[in-house]
Amino acid sequence: MINKKYLVIYNEIAKQIDEKLWEPDQLLPSEHELKEQYNTSRETIRKALNLLSQNGYIQKVRGKGSVVIPRNKYDFPVSGLVSFKELAEKMNNQTKTIVHDVSLIKPNSYLKQQLQLNSKDQVWQVIRVRDLDGGKVILDKDFFNERYVPFLSKEICQDSIYAYLEGEMNLSISFAKKEITVDEPTEEDQQLLDLDGFHNVVVIKNYVYLDDASLFQYTESRHRPDRFRFVDFARRQQ
Amino acid sequence: MINKKYLVIYNEIAKQIDEKLWEPDQLLPSEHELKEQYNTSRETIRKALNLLSQNGYIQKVRGKGSVVIPRNKYDFPVSGLVSFKELAEKMNNQTKTIVHDVSLIKPNSYLKQQLQLNSKDQVWQVIRVRDLDGGKVILDKDFFNERYVPFLSKEICQDSIYAYLEGEMNLSISFAKKEITVDEPTEEDQQLLDLDGFHNVVVIKNYVYLDDASLFQYTESRHRPDRFRFVDFARRQQ
DNA sequence: GAGTGGTCTAGACCACTAT
DNA sequence: TAGTGGTCTAGACCACTCT
Questions:
Q1: How many Å from the CA of B44 to C1' of D13?
Q2: What are A93-136's pLDDT values in tens digits?
Q3: The CATH number fitting domain B76-227, selected from 2.30.30.140, 3.40.1410.10, 3.55.50.30, 3.50.50.100
Q4: Hey, where are the domains in chain B?
Q5: Residue A65, CA: closest nucleotide via C1'?
Q6: What spatial distance separates the first Cα and last Cα of chain B, rounded to whole Å?
Q7: What is this structure's pTM?
Q8: The domain defined by A5-68 carries CATH number 1.10.10.10
């Protein structure tokens, strides 16, 4: 299936670490040994190991080797680009999505700026509320540039939009900028969410880009503060 | 100073993009051209370009070239490992640090767990309040494993602890796990911060590791919600 | 001194985009 | 078809850690 050697090697070792075949704080085999094992060049092994390092599996120590980092299985994959659906499945909770609105609108000036739109571009607006364990705790407002997403429907939004975009529309998401702040609830928040006396909402603004570096989506995800958790893994340069 | 070619090239191009010598959405010179320009091999150029890509400067598009990504100069460097001091300098604000406590303590069981300590290990506890534009809005609680940080003083904590640890102690920080949640204020929060009627604090828990993958610091940074902002840049795998 | 990872090279072939 | 980035190789030298 995958024909990239370094990915095959990365996936194999990552799986072994997940399954604790390598104990935390142990050393992996050296690059030279792995090179022999996988019958490949050292640079290819190094590509795989660098991926493991970037994803928090190992820490490379010069002169010593590659140390396996202690991981909580559920800690890491939360950072980055994660859809509500994936998250819900991971958390194994009772979840429900209520689609309030799916429509093609003329963007106001704020949206125009956020999505870097021309004056005639229209956008798809999707407003959804996420119900977790019987409480409406997340309000998701998605805006898609019509140029990249010509059609949406309530049915698609009920399910996973990303599955549709990537699977059927063949769009390929590559990176996202995220900004997290804590704000006062708006009237909309108060109407659509079960705020239960909370005085703040956590606002996550997401700018999502495609493979060719074009900005195609702006999202605001508004969380009741008790149902918000964000995990990040940061590696210092070099 | 720096004798790594790919870093020199990375820094030079990053600076050029910061200074808008390359316009957003333009293409950089091809890898072949850069290779000639810098009189080096293509793999070295690729290393520099991959760093630029990982740090949100460019997006590489197969068959086309490297597209410069629109950046807000102040957006990006906030993610990852940033000390309060760097942040304060960047934001150019009036800031003040009040050191409430610097002492060597026996860790309670929570700390023991967070820092993965043996039963006889002691920890340095540092409690500081950050005053931004005349309001006490951040409470920083730092805990250092004594094994790695044998000595601290009020003077050191008044300034930048990291400058001391990296400059004088020669410790080298390499990566951190971060967890962000929103909590009720504790009594300590209420006593030490100007909460001004806010009902929540943003809690950032940080686990900081050294070069050799040993955990040496646990930090809780507790922010008044109106003074909190977190920016993240996530690139999808491959 | 032996073994480790970090950097760098010169060249090859492939997949994709433009025209 | 020419030009782009993506992958892979085999080899070299260096800086570091361990004993």
A1: 16
A2: 567 889 999 999 998 888 887 777 877 888 999 999 988 777 89
A3: 3.40.1410.10
A4: 5-68, 76-227
A5: C4
A6: 32
A7: 0.74
A8: yes
